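Lay summary. Proteins are chains of building blocks that fold into shapes, and those shapes determine what they do. In this project we predict the shape from the chain. Here is one chain we studied, written as its sequence of building blocks.
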Amino acid sequence: MTNLRAAAAYKRVDLETAPKDSILDRLFARLLSDAATARAAIVAKDIQTKGNAINHAQQIIIELKAALDATTAPELVANLHQLYDFANARLTRANLALAVSDIDDAVRVLSTISSAFGEARGMR
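And here is the predicted shape, written in a compact code that computers can read:
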């Protein structure tokens, strides 16, 4: 097995066996990291890095939305959908207009959601 295949297998097993809250923490950490990378790339006028980071962040948002279960808390899920849509729209605008303020808006919302999930886990 090549090193790349071994690394891919390790990542797959790691994700399949990780607790759900750990995966959520990782997703939000990567999402916020992508946003920071995109912000720095806009400042540096590095269009390719900006685009790649924003695209990856948006893929994570799509996955977070897809994981929501409206049967458990319909109102909360509807609110989360709206917040994710807001963040996604801001990232799209940042991608097109090279506006760091739009990334900052998205980060504020996503950081709040991440913190709320962390607090909710602490209540269990």
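What the prediction tells us: The two ends are 42 Å apart (CA to CA).
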